[in-house]
């Protein structure tokens, strides 16, 4: 059963790491325009469809939102808004660092931040829950090793930036800018950890025993992504105004192609959390694996992101030494997610 759950999470991670590939097929739109449209699919349409799976026959989502859980619902959306900052800058990190390096640093930081932020913030709001007790020695060691992995991947990025001619950097990643990209990726990772905090606040927003275990976190996922959409929509519309790119939406001849690839990117992105919910349904008998599932998802995202980085030739022209450092960082980062289970 555990293997099935982990396999489902892995499939979701592969889909998420593939979600930025369809974006390369979008034509004639500025970044803010296609980011907003793919967000409609990734953060509204598909999460809403997924949340409906948690609703038993004869009930509705509206019942959950009028059932006395208003505080938890508002907190879930709030942390979704904060996560939205991470989601927004996550996209920018891909722009300046590429799929492989950008996702590695952002997702690695997310895995560490999500592990620490949840217990700390919940302990501040609800000290009686004593959530800090979950930050055991094994967990702290896992976070420490995660940060080491991020640092090593960052070194590989610096080696890439220093070794390649400017034209080769631009050929692999058009807007490559390592200093700006690394700062944005770290911010994206820290803020993205708020997604896991939001899920904690919303973990009881379901129909209890009437909702299958594998679907129980889907309503909370929808609320988090709703908050994230609000953040991203405001920023994208501001950029549309600032850059005078509202005309993108009037290019009717591009809508069929661009909407199709935005929808594909959206469903691939959402698959990670849909897979996380389904996978956790097979891990309920193992509290450790259930707790680690978010970190496992992030580690797998990093691994698959770098597979795509290789396929897209983002590391083409780098020395063997750079590649070795990169691979070492990835292995350490992946190991960090499983370390608490080994040390418990």
Describe the structure.
The protein is mainly α. It is built from 13 helices and no strands. The chain has helices spanning 2-17, 31-52, 61-65, 70-97, 99-125, 137-163, 166-172, 178-192, 194-201, 218-243, 252-280, 287-311, 320-343. The longest helix is centred in the C-terminal third of the chain and has 29 residues, at 252-280. It is globular. The mean pLDDT is 83.
Question: How do the strands and helices of this protein lay out in sequence?
Answer:
Blueprint: H1 2-17, H2 31-52, H3 61-65, H4 70-97, H5 99-125, H6 137-163, H7 166-172, H8 178-192, H9 194-201, H10 218-243, H11 252-280, H12 287-311, H13 320-343
Helix pairs in contact: 1-11, 1-12, 2-10, 2-11, 4-5, 4-8, 4-9, 4-10, 5-6, 5-8, 5-9, 5-12, 6-13, 9-10, 11-12, 12-13
User: Which percent range fits the helix content?
Assistant: over 70%
Mean model confidence by pLDDT? 83
Strand percentage lies at under 5%
The geometry reads as globular
Q: Give the N-to-C terminal Cα separation.
A: 21 Å
Main beta-sheet annotation? none
Poorly predicted sequence stretches spanning 5 or more consecutive residues: none
What does the oligomeric state look like here?
A: single chain
Number of strands: 0
Number of helices: 13
Write the H/E string, N to C: HHHHHHHHHHHHH
Main structural class: mainly alpha
Radius of gyration based on Cα positions? 20 Å
């Amino acid at each position: 059963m555990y293997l099935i759950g982990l396999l489902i999470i892995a499939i979701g991670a592969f889909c998420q790491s593939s979600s930025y590939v369809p974006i390369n097929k979008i034509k004639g739109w500025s970044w803010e325009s296609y980011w907003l449209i793919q967000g409609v699919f990734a953060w509204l349409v598909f999460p809403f469809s997924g949340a409906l799976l948690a609703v038993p026959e004869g009930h509705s989502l509206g019942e959950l939102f009028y059932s006395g859980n208003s505080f938890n619902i508002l907190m879930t959306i709030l942390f979704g808004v904060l996560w939205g900052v991470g989601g927004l800058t996550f996209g920018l990190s891909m722009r300046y660092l590429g799929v492989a390096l950008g996702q590695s640093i952002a997702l690695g930081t997310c895995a560490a931040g999500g592990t620490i932020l949840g217990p700390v913030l919940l302990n501040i709001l609800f000290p009686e829950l004593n959530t800090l007790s979950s930050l055991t020695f094994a967990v702290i060691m896992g976070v420490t090793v995660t940060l080491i992995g991020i640092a090593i991947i960052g070194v590989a990025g610096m080696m890439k930036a220093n070794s390649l001619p400017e034209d080769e950097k631009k050929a692999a990643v058009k807007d490559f800018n390592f200093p700006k990209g690394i700062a944005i990726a770290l911010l994206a990772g820290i803020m993205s950890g708020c997604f896991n905090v939001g899920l904690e606040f919303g973990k009881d927003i379901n129909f209890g025993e009437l909702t299958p275990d594998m679907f129980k976190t889907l309503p909370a996922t929808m609320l988090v992504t709703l908050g994230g959409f609000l953040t991203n929509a405001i920023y994208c519309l501001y950029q549309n105004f600032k850059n005078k790119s509202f005309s993108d939406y009037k290019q009717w001849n591009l809508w069929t192609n661009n909407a199709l690839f935005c929808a594909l990117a959206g469903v691939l992105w959402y698959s990670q959390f849909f897979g996380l919910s389904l996978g956790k349904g097979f891990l309920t008998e193992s509290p450790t694996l259930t707790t680690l599932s978010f970190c496992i998802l992030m580690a797998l995202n990093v691994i698959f992101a770098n597979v795509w980085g290789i396929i897209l030739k983002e590391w083409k022209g780098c020395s063997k030494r750079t590649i070795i450092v990169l691979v070492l960082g990835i292995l350490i980062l992946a190991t960090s997610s499983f370390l608490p289970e080994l040390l418990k």
